[in-house]
Here is the input.
Amino acid sequence: MVNVCVYGAASQKIHPDYLKEAQQLGRLIGQAGLGLVFGGGATGMMGACAGAAHQVGGRIIGIAPHFFNQEGVLFPHCTEMIFTDTMRQRKEKMELLSEAFIMTPGGIGTMEEFFEILTLKQLGRMNKPIAVLNTKGYYDSLKDLLHHCVEQDFLEPEGLELFQMYGSPQELMQDMCKELRI
Here is the structure.
């Protein structure tokens, strides 16, 4: 099975519009017959995406460090839950089990995961598709920052081509499925 890793927030305070987009993404992943690899969280973008994938019978692989194994933290309907000792091991396992990566809106943890996988692609250590779900323009300022990095010669222009940014889950998954030949 082809797996797609989704990075996203666990916050329970985010606007419902973000959660709806995460749910749509999860449904589309499941309906495409792709496996969902994610950080195992029951709440926020992670929980919304996993919950929708579960509703359509999708395969869900949660990966979390042992210290997240507390009541209410982890999504209870994973097909498989893999525990690691550290956050670094978690990211490595997510990378190894996935053929593509999607960053949904999130905070510093989500962005850290995205930038690590983007760096690996830039260094030629992996060549898997990377997509950003830019719900409600959430990552517009990130796009501006990366363009600024190019303008200031901290990033080669080709660095902007290592990932694609999308305004909707439908558009993202349509291109992702083409790239994965699904």
Notes: The CA atoms of residues 46 and 136 lie 18 Å apart. The longest strand covers residues 60-65.
